[in-house]
Amino acid sequence: MGHLFVISGPSAVGKTTIVRYLLGKKPQLSRVITCTTRSVREGEQDGVDYIFLSKEDFREKIERGEFAEFSEVYENYYGVLLSSIQENMKKNEVSILVINWEGFQKVKRSITENVTGIFINPPSIDELERRLRLRNTEDEGDIQKRLLTARLDIAHAGEYDFSVENKEIPQAAKDIFDIISKVVKS
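Predicted structure:
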């Protein structure tokens, strides 16, 4: 059985970018694809970045108990299918899952072995705000909500096995890969 590494951090900290960078450099890593009901952003692909579902389809999967974890964030559902995690861990030595801190807690209750959490911190809240604004995907009200939520997210960083600061993508990715290598070897 493989090892699952859960990557979390506040919105716009660079989680997805870091994981893409890692997957491009380290083909032995595999990403668990999560589900969402939010709209597809430019450049995203269904089944690659997320499994995009309607709210009705998502709710049906909730009723059938198919999710290891799910939550409603910013009026959209996000979740990970238990079957996706299990299949990935059977096939791959190292699987990476990007979810929020609440999801991490739920996954740790569902899968009790071979799960390690890595929290990505921004260099500062000001830098996080700059990155949110550069994304140009949220209006001012959404940016303020995300900054408020970011403070709550960061308060949970101590619940993770490891913490990495994302000043620059290549260095943060290297730090995460070093952690993965250390954990998998032990």
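Summary: The domain at 3-185 is CATH 3.40.50.300 (Rossmann fold).
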